[in-house]
Amino acid sequence: MPRDNITTTQTSTPMVHQLSIFIQNKAGTLEKVLRLFKESRIQIVTTTLADTQDFGIFRVICTEPERAYLVLKEAGITVTLTQVQAIGLDNTPGQAADALEVFATEDIEISYLYSFLLKNRGVLIFKTDNRQRADEIIAQHKLNVLSDCDLIQLAQ
């Protein structure tokens, strides 16, 4: 897969910082979290929400993940800050399947994944069961790795 014109300056595989926010499944809890982002003037780049019967996991990529983490913690919200991987794709049918085939062929399990478009570029955010091996595969196949800065730049 060809790389686009986004570059990173880090020597190791860049990672994206993701907030995982645990929220109760009741009216107003998601709004409270979003209001904290608004009041703190932290821009959300993308989100995904997975739910169970009693609670949801609201995953967020934003412009200032470390500050957002502190804001949420100070508000008494259960949140974790983790690193996930991100790759950029051409916005054409089948690119995500091609990218995931590379990992499947190497027996790398994808724990979770979400995707979206920014400026007509596809983006996959994912977590694997073997980050180190996934980094090697990404480098081997010259996949377009994205960092926090790359995502923010695309979102502007």
Could you describe the 3D structure shown?
The protein has two domains: 16-82, VC0802-like (2-Layer Sandwich), CATH 3.30.2130; 84-155, VC0802-like (2-Layer Sandwich). The chain contains five helices and seven strands. The chain has helices at residues 29-40, 65-74, 95-105, 131-140, 148-155, and strands at 16-24, 44-51, 55-62, 79-90, 110-118, 121-128, 144-145. Strands 1, 2, 3, 4, 5, 6 and 7 form a seven-stranded antiparallel beta sheet that branches. It is globular and about 45 Å long. The chain starts with 15 loop residues before the first strand and ends with a helix. Residues 1-11 have low confidence and may be disordered.
Low-pLDDT parts are 1-11
3D shape:
globular
Count the DSSP helices.
Answer: 5
* Rounded mean pLDDT score: 87
Which fold name corresponds to the CATH topology of the largest domain? VC0802-like
Estimate the helix proportion, in percent. 25-40%
Beta percentage is 35-45%
Report the structural category: alpha+beta
Major sheet summary line = 7 strands, antiparallel
- The CATH architecture name of the largest domain reads 2-Layer Sandwich
CA-based gyration radius: 16 Å
Count the beta strands: 7
The ordered string of helix (H) and strand (E) elements is EHEEHEHEEHEH
CATH class of the largest domain: Alpha Beta
